[in-house]
Each structure stands twice: as structure tokens, then as C-alpha cells.
Specification:
423 residues; alpha/beta; 2 domains; nine-stranded mixed sheet; eight-stranded parallel β-barrel; binds ligand LLP
């Protein structure tokens, strides 16, 4: 995404941010469609270089939108869904159901039936008990379904505790160390209405280099060899990091994927083990840096010698990551280009002290009511984690490309808030 000042006004890919905000209102999410496509192509190119059979599915939880899914289809991406709702959204788009993978550590019977009837490519199994449930439902529907098993490799990724998933004490996957993973594979192999296709792991999110994944691949291939299990698919999940601020490292997609695929090839060669197809599930790295949020400044509260609170017209209802993970963000003033010389705290308007967007960040000292601010890198896990707390309305979402600007999700209206109330 190119954010730059033209004639003293912030622009995104040459489009004036203030004009877009005036048309669609604030808070507003704006995505750079070209960047989304470019990220998909970078993963494709890196995997094509490896010469391996591969597939990439976009982790739809990062940002669920029908227009986005249509772009994913155009960019040859499959989809990873974890709920009836995500699957339903996917089915409204051009995505082919046979490229959808159904995840989840507590799939309901209804979800399993819905996924089978929709024709998803495979289930990612997360527990022993779900195997017999899926087998029974598949037998009732008189069909055989594909499944891969999510294993817990016991590898700790260096990231925030709440988005770490590969450590032993985790609700996700079946542990190799405790023998649950092999028990799961045997159960899958013995289930007549399930076709066991391979294994899956996801060691965490916002991982900035390939070491953890490489160690996990080595461990998993050796384990499969020792257990005499062959697989068609090795799904290594997502988790590729993005830059929220200048201090963050963006995952080196080309080098990282090369290291990962070379490791897979050499491990398979070492054990004379048949090379599986490699699958990836990137979410954040596809949409994260391609999205920004635009807010309007309201109250500015200067507490002498203490802090300056700048409150904006959204908050934790559309931006929960600062409150939840103490995540850090960079902001820009939209309607003029001035030096960021003042330390301020950007607060949301919701009724909670923890409703902060950015603590002790730098902005021009002239910022006042009516100014517009941009928060960078909000494309992943912002809209999708938004809520109606304090009866806030979910913002509208706009895609810009070089050629055009289009609204892809409309702002909620007050009527939406009470649509389900029984009066
Ligand atoms: N595959 C699996 C099995 C996952 O659990 C996840 C993310 C992904 C793929 C995609 O990971 P990504 O490439 O987006 O990092 N709400 C948190 C992130 C939770 C991630 C959950 N699983 C956040 O805002 O940072």
C-alpha cells in the first residue's frame, strides 16, 4: 500500500483519503485491493519455485467478506473456515466449495452435516471424539469425506501467549508426545466413511521467521516415518507476520517458503519418504497490511504533566487488538502533513478505560476536533473481531484499486442493532 501526502493530504494509491471518508463516513476500513492480490501472488510464486505440489487457502477469520472471497477465487486461493457462519459466507461467493477446509476444535453435528452437504474438500480433525461423529454423519449421508489430522507438535512459537497454539498445553490439535496424534490417525484409518489424507499443524500467529516451522517439519516427518504412516497432504497452517509498526519484522515470504520447502524435500529424501503436497493457510499476511482504519477526532483532553487523550469516533468495537494483546500501531494525520512532535494517547469512545487504540504515540501537536486519523495495518482481525458493544455500529468497508473505489460492506444501521429483538 502506498500511503503518501499529495498536496498536503494523505492519499492511498493516489486516492485522497479525506474524500473517501467524506463519501463513506467514519470509522471506515479502506483496503488496497492490489496489495491483497500481490500478497496472494507472492505466496504462489514462492511455492511454484519449489516445484512441489501445493495449495494455499486464505484463513477467512482474518477478514470475512464476500467480495474478498471473490478476489481469493480469482487469485487461485482456497479457503479455511472454522464455523457454519464462515462457511455460509464462503458459499455466497465465487469460491468453489471443493477448495474449502473445515476447521474447529468443537465442530457441532449441524456444522459437520452442513460442511459435508456443501462439498468441502476436507475436515481438519481436532479431537478423537469428533472422528466417530464425522464418520457416523458421513455414513448417514452415504458419502466418504476427506480428513487431515491437526497435530500438536509441542513446538513453542515466539509470539503473544494468546496467539500461540503449538505448545503442549493447548486446546488445539492432538499431541504427538502424549500419543494422541497417532491414536487419532489410526482411528481415521479405521473409519470407513473417512478418507485419511494427511496432517496439519499451526504453531502460532505473527511468526516472523521460519525456524519453528522448519523444526516442526523435521519432527513431524521423522515421527511419520517411525510410525510408518504415509500422507498425501502436509498442511503447515498460517501465522506469517506483518508490520504493524517500524519495529515489527515482516515475514520474508520468498526466503521463508524456500527454507520450508527445501527442508521438506531434504527430510523426505533423507528417509526415502514420499513427498506430500504442501498446504498453507495465511490470513493476516494476505490482508493485514492492505487495510487501514480512518477515524474522526472528537474530544481532546490534556491532563497537565500527565497525558493527552485524543478520542476518536470508534474504539474497541472495531479495534480490539490493543486492549486484547497490547498490540502497537502507527497513526497518521489525514488532512495535513505536519511533523509528529507530540506524545499522545488515542482512545476509543466506548465505556471502558482499556478502550485504547495506541498508547504514547506521536502525532502533530495541532491535532484537534474534526481532524481525520489513519491507523495503519488494520486489515486483519479488526473488522472480523468487531462487536456491537455500547451498540456501536460496525463500520463500512471500502476497497480501492488503481482504477476504482467500491464499498464492499455497508455500515450497519440502527435498525440492524435491534433486528433480532422480540418486541
Ligand atoms: N490456520 C489456523 C489453523 C489458524 O488457527 C490460524 C489463525 C490461521 C491459519 C491464520 O493465521 P494468520 O496467518 O492469520 O496468522 N485474533 C488474533 C489471531 C488469531 C489467529 C487464530 N488462528 C490476532 O488478532 O492476532
Amino acid at each position: 500500500m502506498t500511503l503518501k501526502y499529495i498536496n498536503n493530504q494523505l492519499s492511498i494509491n493516489g486516492h485522497d483519503v479525506k474524500t473517501i471518508a467524506e463519501q463513506y463516513g467514519t470509522p471506515l476500513f479502506i483496503y488496497d485491493e492490489n496489495m491483497i492480490r500481490e500478497q496472494c501472488r507472492r505466496f504462489h510464486n514462492a511455492l511454484q519455485h519449489s516445484g512441489l505440489k501445493y495449495s494455499i487457502s486464505y484463513a477467512s477469520k482474518a477478514f470475512t467478506s464476500i467480495q474478498l472471497f471473490n478476489i481469493m477465487q480469482e487469485e487461485n486461493m482456497g479457503l479455511d473456515v472454522v464455523s457454519e457462519g464462515e462457511l455460509y459466507a464462503a458459499l455466497q461467493s465465487k469460491i468453489d466449495a471443493s477448495t474449502i477446509h473445515f476447521h474447529g476444535n468443537n465442530k457441532t453435528d449441524r456444522e459437520i452435516e452442513f460442511a459435508i452437504l456443501s462439498g468441502v474438500e476436507y475436515f481438519v480433525i481436532d479431537s478423537i471424539e469428533e472422528i466417530s461423529r464425522i464418520n457416523t454423519i458421513a455414513s448417514t449421508l452415504n458419502t466418504v469425506v476427506n480428513a487431515i489430522l491437526r497435530i500438536n507438535p509441542g513446538v513453542e512459537a515466539h509470539t503473544h501467549e494468546f496467539i500461540q497454539t503449538g505448545q503442549e498445553d493447548s486446546k488445539f490439535g492432538l499431541s504427538i508426545k502424549h500419543g494422541l496424534a497417532i491414536q487419532g490417525i489410526h482411528a481415521l484409518q479405521n473409519a470407513p466413511f473417512i478418507n485419511f489424507r494427511g496432517v496439519h499443524f499451526h504453531i502460532g500467529s505473527q511468526i516472523f521467521e521460519s525456524t519453528g516451522t522448519i523444526r516442526t517439519i523435521e519432527l513431524v516427518i521423522e515421527w511419520l516415518v517411525n510410525e510408518n504412516i504415509s500422507i498425501d497432504i502436509l498442511n503447515i497452517g498460517g501465522g506469517f507476520s506483518i508490520r504493524y509498526t517500524e519495529d515489527d519484522l515482516q515475514y520474508p515470504i520468498e526466503d521463508g517458503i524456500r527454507n520450508i520447502t527445501e527442508t521438506l524435500k531434504s527430510e523426505c529424501r533423507k528417509f526415502n519418504y514420499a513427498l506430500p503436497e504442501i498446504s498453507l493457510e495465511p490470513g493476516r499476511s494476505i490482508v493485514g497490511e492492505a487495510g487501514i482504519t480512518v477515524y474522526e477526532v472528537g474530544t481532546v483532553k490534556e491532563i497537565p504533566h500527565t497525558n493527552c487523550y485524543i478520542s476518536i469516533d470508534g474504539g474497541m468495537s472495531d479495534h480490539i487488538r490493543t486492549a486484547l494483546y497490547n498490540a502497537k500501531y502507527e497513526l497518521l494525520l489525514v488532512n495535513r502533513n505536519e511533523k509528529s512532535d507530540k506524545t499522545v494517547t488515542i482512545a476509543g469512545k466506548l465505556c471502558e478505560s482499556g478502550d485504547i487504540i495506541a498508547r504514547n504515540t506521536k502525532l502533530p501537536s495541532s491535532v484537534s476536533r474534526g481532524d481525520l486519523l489513519v491507523v495503519k495495518s488494520t486489515g486483519a482481525y479488526h473488522y472480523s473481531m468487531s462487536s456491537n458493544y455500547n451498540q456501536m455500529l460496525k463500520p463500512s468497508v471500502v476497497f480501492v484499486s488503481n482504477e476504482n473505489i467500491r464499498e464492499v460492506i455497508k455500515r450497519q444501521t440502527l435498525e440492524h442493532l435491534f433486528a433480532n429483538e422480540v418486541i
